[in-house]
Specification:
Blueprint (H helix, E strand, L loop, with lengths): L2 H39 L8 H20 L4 E2 H9 L6 H16 L1 E5 L8 H6 L2 H9 L6 E6 L19 H20 L4 E2 H10 L2 H4 L5 H10 L3 E6 L7 E6 L1 H6 L2 H12 L7 H9 L21
Antiparallel strand pairs: 1-3, 2-3, 4-6, 5-6
Length: 305
């Protein structure tokens, strides 16, 4: 056989060997893409039996309750790792089943937390173009949840929803009252307070004396850790760090504008001016459908000064 023919056949054989792995890789990639598409569309998965799904739903409910008890967010990664295990593609079915169980049995549901805002220059620089676009369009997902009540407003009273008895009812009530006050304070100041102004307000309310269960600094650290507050530190060369305080992601969900307005009216108590909601809307920067109704009169119909 001529040498040229032998070389040609060897090259053809080598080409076939190179093409085959590429085909296998392409088929594998197509299969993975199809799996991802199926998961995104409906989350269908073949589990051993219906009892397996029921077991996973109960497991997720327990996990959600445990997270809320500790006031830590329910993370999607945590659900996959600690609940789903070998059934990661069952997420949607199990999540929907747990939501139904939580609503029917506990009067609660998992609500997604808003995405944490980038406060400092360094955080904004690290943010990718895709993340910035998603944040601007409001399509970004935090993939974290907390439990919120689904009870009708008529049942959301102190006599029905009492403070937790752990560590004690009185301590829990004081803690809830403090973070509600602080969140309302920040929200009514445009959503941001400088460190100096923040501690000036705390000093005027005698926080050190009115928080008998712990030091103010320790309580603030706890509020930041649990997501009620955000402490943004902007480092600058040669100067002191610039510190600002903001409402955290959990704080925005647990103490929405309606709760801030109710808190203000409770503090005001009597002679509430007719235009109080209008004032609150202006302070909170609420417009359009997000604004509180302005046609409600105060308790005594008094005009504001």
């Amino acid at each position: 056989m001529p040498p040229q023919t032998q070389r040609r056949r060897r090259r053809d054989s080598d080409d076939e060997e190179e093409v085959e792995p590429r085909r296998r890789h392409s088929r594998r990639q197509d299969s993975e893409d199809e799996d991802d598409e199926e998961l995104d569309e409906d989350g269908d998965v073949d589990m051993a039996s219906a009892s397996d799904e029921v077991g996973l739903v109960k497991k997720l409910v327990r996990y959600a309750l445990a997270c809320e008890y500790a006031r830590i967010p329910i993370r999607r990664d945590g659900i996959r790792d600690k609940v789903l295990g070998n059934n990661p593609r069952a997420f949607k079915k199990v999540f929907d089943g747990a939501q139904l169980n939580l609503r029917q049995v506990f009067g609660m549901e998992m609500a997604e937390l808003p995405v944490k805002e980038k406060r400092t220059l360094r955080e904004k620089q690290k943010q990718s173009a895709t993340q910035r676009q998603a944040a601007a369009q409001g399509t970004a997902s935090s993939k974290t949840y907390i439990l919120v009540s689904t009870l009708p407003s008529a049942y959301k009273t102190a006599s029905i929803i009492t403070p937790s008895r752990v560590p004690s009812s009185s301590e829990e009530a004081e803690y809830t009252g403090f973070y509600t006050f602080v969140i309302a304070l920040i929200a009514l100041n445009g959503g941001e307070l400088s460190n100096v102004k923040f501690f000036d307000y705390l000093g005027r309310m005698n926080a050190d004396r009115n928080l008998p269960f712990d030091k103010t600094e320790n309580v603030l650290v706890k509020l930041v850790r649990q997501g009620y507050l955000e402490k943004a530190v902007e480092k600058t060369e040669g100067d002191e760090d610039t510190i600002t305080w903001h409402v955290g992601t959990r704080g925005k969900v647990e103490v929405p504008p309606e709760s801030v307005a109710a808190f203000v009216k409770e503090v005001w108590k009597t002679d509430i001016p007719r235009d109080l909601n209008k004032r609150i809307n202006k302070s909170l920067g609420l417009q359009g459908g997000a604004a509180l109704p302005e046609d409600q009169e105060g308790e005594n119909g008094a005009e504001g000064e």
